[in-house]
Amino acid sequence: MAENSQKTASELFEFLDGLGISHTTKQHEPVFTVAESQSLRDLIPGGHTKNLFVKDKKDQYFVLTVEENAVVDLKSVHKTIGAASRVSFGRPEKMLEYLGVVPGSVTVFGAINDTDRQVTFVLDSGLLENELVNGHPLSNDQTTTIASTDLIRFLEATGHAPLVLKVSE
């Protein structure tokens, strides 16, 4: 395993700038759940995300990024995403190692820290119907907004070709 130097939000923004990806970020109180983040909806336009860090029995890791109110059936989603077995939540230590974040801060932007490409990123097709999408920029006290098409460009630039699938019910 290569030593990872975990990126900061500022380094993420520099990376986005280098790709020519327009982004805006709002500071707010730390939020750990979708319910806690509801008060931000009127302040931040676009689709808001829920991110699930999961693994299968062969220790293949996935981040499932869906619309905040979407329901994901963890008993059957493995069939859709190509996992070897039913999935369960990944351990916090692996989340920190691979994505550079802790529980409550899981984000698709964690791809910037997964330089060994240990994680497969899955974007729910319903989320991408939004022109703009929002996620935490490696910490849960900020929300960054980018175009949904730019989210795919970001992931590809980190070496992660995202799977775009219908994973929510």
What does this structure look like?
InterPro entries: ProX/PRXD1 (IPR040285), YbaK/aa-tRNA-synt-asso_dom_sf (IPR036754), YbaK/aa-tRNA-synth-assoc-dom (IPR007214). Pfam families: tRNA_edit. Belongs to the PRORSD1 family. This is Prolyl-tRNA synthetase associated domain-containing protein. It comes from Agrobacterium leguminum. The chain has helices at 9-18, 34-37, 77-81, 92-99, 148-157; strands at 24-27, 47-55, 61-67, 88-89, 119-124, 132-135, 142-147, 163-165. By secondary structure, it is an alpha/beta fold. Strand 2 and strand 3 form a beta hairpin. The protein contains 5 helices and 8 strands; from the N terminus they run H-E-H-E-E-H-E-H-E-E-E-H-E. The radius of gyration is 15 Å and the shape is globular. Helix content is 22%, strand content 24%. Strands 1, 2, 3, 4, 5, 6, 7 and 8 form an 8-stranded mixed beta sheet that branches. The protein has one domain: YbaK/aminoacyl-tRNA synthetase-associated domain (YbaK protein), CATH 3.90.960.10.
